[in-house]
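[job 0412] stage=complex_fold ligand=pyridoxal-5'-phosphate status=START
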Amino acid sequence: MTDTVTETDAARTYRLDRAHVFHSWSAQARFAPMVVTRAEGSRVWDGDGREYLDFSSQLVFTNIGHQHPKVVAAVQRQAAQLCTIAPGTAVAPRSEAARLVAELAPEGMDKVFFTNGGADANEHAIRMARLHTGRVKVLSTYRSYHGGTHLAVNVTGDPRRWASDHGSAGTVHFFGPFLYRSPFHATTEAEECQRALEHLEQVIALEGPDTIAAIILESIPGTAGIMPPPPGYLAGVRELASRHGIVYIADEVMTGFGRTGTWWGLEHGDVVPDLITFAKGVNSGYVPLGGVVLNGPIAATFDDRVYPGGLTYSGHPLACAAAVATIETMHEERIVENAARLGREVLGPVLAELARTHPSVGEVRGTGVFWAVELVRDRASREPLAPYGGTSEVMNATVAACKAEGLLPFVNYNRIHVVPPLTISDQDARRGLEILDHALTVADAATTG
Ligand code: PLP
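[job 0412] stage=complex_fold status=DONE, emitting structure tokens
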């Protein structure tokens, strides 16, 4: 008798993936990717047809949700019209996307350089800052992520930098504000703000103000912990940068395009940087796209001087058509306003309740649709449930409990981030939080406080 069992499509996808796909940030032999066959709105389906609520927005990029029909149609129309073209041309989707992004940026920031994603946006922003100032050093915070290419990973503060932290001439790290784990022994937001700014002022003085090209800062650090800076911090950074002729680069790759309940994260601090980098939410990742928004003086540096940089796919028509449709749809459907409301009325209050009832929750913090649940073994000592840069059995078990009930969370070390699409329904948001509530009992069992 012959074995006539045929391989399912999902099984074939998985087998070929394991045979041929080399994955990001993974030990290849130990990696077991989820097979995904379809996605819609805030839901994804795996190879066995199981449905999950996506509380991760994948890597925090599907702000508009999966398969939004207006964005899908725009990409289809553009594909039928003109799939691709060299970057040194003027084409409608690129021109329109640049206009829409510039319109959203603070006054005086009118030019957009398009890249393929966030890391190269930061690479180019730093190059622009260096050429504009004639200086080399770049300051960034320890608890940060700025991308996986060489310079971007060198300015990254988080542990993903460690393996590639060589040849990083000119990158200097400092402590940003983070009251829950204050490096300054502060006990109030105001104290944390003041001490963090004094620390940065010292770092600038000791590094030599005239050697520093840029400070690059996530407006709200994302993967490193979703830590909204205390009131006044971003304005203080702006003042220090201006005082010393340092370019202030706002990394809005994760915080941009509505994630925090405003179009840009920097609106919470009411500041105007010199350069803004973006990616992810600009078109919810339907086609890879990132970019840099330039202010007038930096743009003018390259009016008569050649900008020494470029990309084959800068301003790719399909990616830009997706951006145009995404931004227009976000305006029409008031998706950013919805993000703010979701944070205020659903995510914030329910997460505060979880913090009250679960001993494993040390703190919840965030805004809009951008929240971190900080898990600890002991609320008094604040010992994290997994070590910095690592994981633990109990974290894995907590995440497994989420998945078992059909929830895909975003996880980083000892934190679960609640970052669903900005379009998630209140009912789905509440359902996801209910699953998280159940899963946290697994974490509670490991607490010692
Ligand atoms: N900057 C920030 C704040 C990010 O969160 C990320 C990615 O997560 C990046 C830069 C890098 O973007 P990309 O992965 O598109 O290169």
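Residues 70-332 form a domain with the Aspartate Aminotransferase; domain 2 fold (CATH 3.40.640.10).
[job 0412] exit 0
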